[in-house]
Amino acid sequence: MSPPTRAGARELLESADDSLLDLVDNLLNRGVVISGEVMLGLAGVDLVYLRLQAVLCAADRVAERAEP
Amino acid sequence: MRGGPRGGARGTVSRVYLYALLSAAPAGETGVGISHEPLRTVTADGLVALVGDVVEPPAVSAEALRAQDTLVSRLAGALDAVLPARFGTVVADDAALTQVLARRRTELMQALQRVAGCEQMTLRIWGERSAPMPPAAAGGDGPGSRYLAGRRHAHERARRAAELDGLRPALVGLVREERIERHDRPPLLATVQHLISRGASARYRATVEAGGALLAPWRVSVSGPWLPYAFGETAA
Question: Cβ A32–B223 below 8 Å, yes or no?
Answer without folding.
Answer: no
